Amino acid sequence: MGGAGGDQLNGGAGTNDTASYANAGSGVVASLTSSFSAFQTNDAQGDSFSNIENLTGSEHSDTLFGNTSDNVLDGGAGDDVLDGLGGNDSLSGGQGDDHIYASTTIDNLPDLIAGGTGIDTLVLQDLVSGGSYDLNAIATVTDHIETLDIRDGVGSEIVFSGADIQAMVDNATASHLDILADTGDTMRLLTDPATEQLSPAFMSGTDAVYTVTDSGGATLAQVHWQTV
Ligand SMILES: [Ca+2]
Ligand SMILES: [Ca+2]
Ligand SMILES: [Ca+2]
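Above are the sequence and the calcium ion SMILES. Below is the predicted complex in structure-token form.
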């Protein structure tokens, strides 16, 4: 546990060692990637980590960076920012309105993205300009996320099913996902049009609440597309 002042934290052998700031009196910026160590603040300022794979934040608003290995980042309470920086990470926001960054590349698919309580945002990274990304893989590992942010400066297509939105938001047929998009982004239902439909039909550039309905017209989920 890193207290005030610069600490050298060494987890020793094993692949599941945690540096915890759970008792810190204010939020910390902490990074397992040493090149970001100059950005560390408060109880994490001056701390260096070796053989540490995981970080636990305080009950205040923290920013936690992992490294290229598989990390467990737990923000705890407060409005936290979590970025695993590659590998198969487990990223838990806990209480508060959190922002969790995750790569869309297969090799860096997180094992877990858990928003916890609050209004939580998943920021997708590494989307390909002109490419199409199936949300299913990341939706499968995602819980309690209310907002999807794909504003990365490139135009890409997001494809999904009603089940994917339900898996991400975890509110059954009342699942409502806000999507924050660039002007060049589009979305499409991946499923057979005879099975699921968007109502109204998606119009690129039109910000609206789109309802995913099943073949009988029943609501499965809603997507609020917002170009901002
Ligand atoms: Ca926190
Ligand atoms: Ca990582
Ligand atoms: Ca949260």
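The mean pLDDT is 95.
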